[in-house]
Design goal:
With 563 residues, the chain is α/β, with parallel strands linked by helices. 36% of the residues lie in helices and 12% in strands. The structure holds calcium ion.
Length: 563
């Protein structure tokens, strides 16, 4: 596993809102121009220092955009507490002159607490939905009942110059944010570090290949032969047949699930509900487990499994910890695996390999739909008395400089500015931190980091370089934006129906997948028609038809932006 230095001590996290960070903040661009008036942070005492720094900013940026409504208003903001240091970070980053009225943070410790606020009508003006882990179906309900309001009229060059620019440059981000009724109720984020969206890279044990005098396999038949050699040739040299030629997880970490290999049969997909085993072919939504491609995939994986070339427990663990433990075994016992990074105990033995080709199919490796923009970062409720002011406030999130600090950590703490570029103070930080000690990462916030920002404004951190390198290798075989299921919004009604169908449909598909692969008595060819009939009984056609409507509504917005 990747080792991280614990340079961010907890004590430092507690003082995050302290003076150490103020210098960093004043170095930020003030593109919002909201320098008039006084900002009061209800949840921090550092607001006292704000008027001076605000007064020092370029007077040409002052404007009269703020109304009396904004100056007298309090924006109440609901947000989750997924990152323990997030409250402090929020105060630091949004403290300076972003809004002339008051900001009151309503930190929610759980979705239940949030729901209670919603049920009693005591909700905030703004909801950071992603940071609260809100389900899409809830947002569809809130939109249908008028609790969250349409925002598109405020996304203008005047009110939101930064978001407006992002939508112009990234029309897909606008398309994923548009509901089937044509309104935009939530604002998205966009990250241009494409490597982040290459979820899984295949790795093969090069030391084993060398030992057995084998080449990196390029077809599924060659892969089979290599796996057999790994099984029988004692490549780790300990005299025991302990090798697991190929292994993967169950995808609980978001990575390393068996469906990833569907890219070999040209229909990239994922099993979680947001993706729902869907793919897009020439504008048509396809339910992947109902295709011949899926059948071929099952047959191949079955062959590997039945011959002991795949970890025999791979479909039963509750999470990915078993897979990760196998990878960390020393001496190595895993020959081929895929994940987000080199998770192996001896990573130097492994090299990235391109997915092997299957006869008659073109590889289309999965690109996470976040690559076209991620929706659901923030919405505004009918409780808000200053929607325009709230939107002006939100626009500050969309400058590149603010985005870097919001997502990855502030200057002075995480970054230093060198030759005008944000550079990580410690390159070992930020490798997907999960604790304050590891670093800060709050990707759930709105923001915009175009690919052009890398190595011009942000020096590409080491942890991103590895993925970017893999991305360059995989780029020729990656699914293009047109074949990704973009996770579009559905209406309240559609969302209810599709969730109902998917519950039974996905349970059956997953059960049959495991049966077809692992049960020695299963006969995929003989049982296929019956399998398809059951999918039909479980209303797969309706599932696809609703998905198609949602996709077309997404595509309409997208096309209107690019044509
Ligand atoms: Ca061995």
């Amino acid at each position: 596993m990747m080792k991280r230095k614990n340079i961010l001590a907890t004590a430092m996290a507690i003082t995050l809102a302290g003076s150490m960070l103020l210098g960093g903040c004043s170095g930020k661009s003030e593109s919002g121009g909201n320098t008039a008036g006084t900002t009061v942070q209800e949840t921090t005492s550092k607001a006292d220092s704000t008027p001076e720094s605000a007064a020092q900013t370029d007077p040409s940026q002052e404007n009269d955009a703020w109304t009396e409504v904004s100056k007298d208003n309090t924006l109440r903001i609901m947000i989750g507490q997924s990152n323990p240091i997030f409250p402090e970070l929020t105060n630091v980053i949004t403290a300076e002159g972003w809004y002339p009225g008051k900001i009151e943070w309503m930190f929610q410790s759980s979705r239940d607490q949030f729901q209670l606020h919603m049920n009693t009508g005591d909700y905030g003006d703004l909801i950071f939905c992603n940071m609260l882990d809100l389900r899409e179906s809830m947002l569809s309900q809130y939109a249908a009942s008028g609790i969250i309001i349409p925002l598109e009229d405020y996304i203008t060059e005047d009110i939101m110059p930064n978001l407006y620019k992002m939508f112009t440059e990234q029309p897909s981000a606008k398309a994923v944010s548009t509901f089937p009724d044509g309104h935009i109720y939530t604002l998205p984020r966009f990250v241009g570090s494409t490597g982040d969206f290459l979820e899984d890279v295949m790795y093969i044990n090069k030391a084993w290949l060398d030992k057995l005098d084998l080449e990196v396999p390029t077809t599924i038949d060659e892969l089979y032969d290599v796996l057999v050699a790994f099984r029988d040739g004692d490549p780790n040299g300990n005299g025991e047949a302990d090798e697991i030629p190929m292994s993967f997880g169950v995808g609980t970490s978001g990575y390393s699930f068996v469906e990833e290999l569907m890219g070999i049969w040209g229909l990239p997909t994922k099993h979680f509900a947001t993706d729902g085993f869907r793919s897009v072919v020439n504008g048509e939504v396809v339910f992947v487990p109902a295709t011949e491609n899926w059948k071929e995939f099952l047959k191949y994986i079955r062959k590997l499994y039945q011959e002991g070339l795949i970890n025999q427990d791979v479909f039963s663990p509750a999470d990915d910890s078993q897979f990760l433990a196998l990878c960390e075994s020393d001496p190595s016992i895993v020959g081929v695996g895929w994940n987000s990074a080199k998770v192996f105990a001896n990573p130097d033995d492994y090299i990235a390999m391109l997915p092997p080709k299957a006869p008659g199919y073109e590889v289309k490796w999965r690109l996470h739909p976040g690559a076209i923009g991620t929706k659901n970062t923030v919405c505004i409720t009918d409780a808000c008395k200053d929607v325009e002011g709230a939107m002006r406030w939100l626009d500050n999130f969309y400058t590149v400089e603010n985005t870097i600090e919001q997502w990855y950590g502030p200057v002075g703490q995480t970054f230093e500015i060198v030759d005008g570029m944000y550079r990580l103070i410690d390159q070992d930080m930020l490798a997907w931190p999960t604790t304050p000690e590891d670093g800060i990462m709050t990707l759930g916030l709105p923001g915009y980091l175009p690919s052009s920002a890398f190595d011009t404004i942000l020096e590409t951190p080491n942890f991103m370089k590895e993925k970017m390198e893999a991305y360059r290798m995989y780029e020729p075989i990656l699914a293009d934006a047109g074949s990704i299921w973009p996770r579009p919004y559905t209406s309240d009604e559609q969302s209810e129906e599709i969730n109902e169908i998917y519950t039974d449909l996905s349970a059956y598909v997953i059960q049959q997948k495991v049966y077809f692969i692992t049960d020695s008595s299963a006969d995929i060819d003989a049982e296929w028609d019956n399998y398809l009939k059951t999918l039909s009984d479980l209303r797969v056609d309706e599932f696809v038809s609703i998905s198609q409507d949602a996709y077309e509504s997404y595509n309409e917005t997208y096309s209107s932006m690019v044509n």
